[in-house]
Amino acid sequence: MEPVEIGNGKRARLPEFIHVGPPRTGTTWLHEALAGHVALPAQKETLFFEYRYDLGLKWYTDFFKDSAPDLHCGEIGPSYFANAVARERIQRDIPNCKIICTMRDPATRLYSQYRFLRRGRRSAQRSLDFTGYWRSLVHWGSDLCGYATQLRRWQDAFGDDRVLVLFYEDLMSNPQGYLNQVCDFVGAPRVALGKSPVEDVKVLSVWSGARRNSISKLGANSIHWLAQHGAASLIRRSKQTQIGRRMRGLFVEDYEPLSQTSADEIRHMMLPETIELEKMTGRDLSNWKPRSAREEKPVTKDSGSPSLVS
Fold first, then answer.
1. Which of 108, 135, 195, 219 sits between 20 and 30 A of 34, alpha carbons compared?
2. CATH number of the domain where residue 52 is located
3. 236: in domain
């Protein structure tokens, strides 16, 4: 992309592409896979178009000032997807920007987001169960990132040919093919995962979860063994200390798994969006639907019926 004016007669580079999310769709993996092959901010999410816009373009373009001129510039900003203000700012400042979106089953995406928040340090989030979490989003008016509605807004802003729609399931099943689509879309040379630090692992967050689950099981078994061998009172007292709570948060994921009931409720609520996304992309998304709707015939690509999420 040609340099742009940033004030005082100075010109600087802006991203040629932005992965706008939504969150929990493998964006950390993509950032790591592309690093060194395209120019990316060292900080994965600058949040510039969302919360830091007042800092000015000069602040933002400094992230790319030392990038090699032959590398394509980009950013991974998963929180931009459902943010109208961020979309309008990107459209105004980088009208020719290419946009990438990765879609994921709304139930598993929300559950992944819930787990991410539970690992945080804010006690209110750590004590909230998953049902309470996602229902609170509905209560406060969140559209849960209505995929079809938000996707159409990005397409209207940048044009269908400048918006790449990907699916998280493809990243899981064929990470090389997924990455090839990204590279081809942005015009960058393809990256061979066999020579990449993320080659052995499909998605960093999945690896972290698997590793964490293994540690959790080891930790839980160790705690059980200690309790059976005279340390039960010590364990009870340790739970009340700060270090005990930290260790429990590291070793024991003491929150419920995604239940079929919760998954079906979320998928039912998002069903109009899922059906519309099927029409827009021609993709069979039967697995994103509640069990009661999975026997229906998949829809074909058509931009006809409106989405129910605004």
1. 108
2. 3.40.50.300
3. no
Write out pLDDT tens, residues 8-28.
545 578 999 999 999 999 999
Q: Smallest Cα–Cα separation from 26: which of 206, 187, 174, 176? A: 206
Structure tokens at 84: 């109208």
Which residue is associated with the tokens 């706008």?
Answer: 20
In a domain, 246, yes or no: no
269: Cβ–Cβ under 8 A, 6 or more apart, which residues? 138, 144
CB atoms within 10 A of CB 24: 22
Distance CA 109, CA 162 (A): 25
Which range marks the domain in which residue 87 is found?
4-104+143-195
Which pLDDT value is given to residue 217? Answer: 47
Structure tokens at 219: 């930790």
| E-assigned strand segments in the chain | 4-7, 10-12, 17-21, 74-76, 98-103, 163-167
Pure H helices in 94-241: 106-118, 123-126, 130-139, 147-158, 168-173, 175-186, 204-226, 232-238
Residue recorded with tokens 């964006």: 27
- The answer as to whether 245 is a domain residue is no
| Contact call for residues 20 and 78 (beta carbons, < 8 A) | yes
Sign of CA dihedral 135, 140, 145, 150: positive
- Helix, strand, coil content of the chain in percent (nearest 5): 55, 10, 35
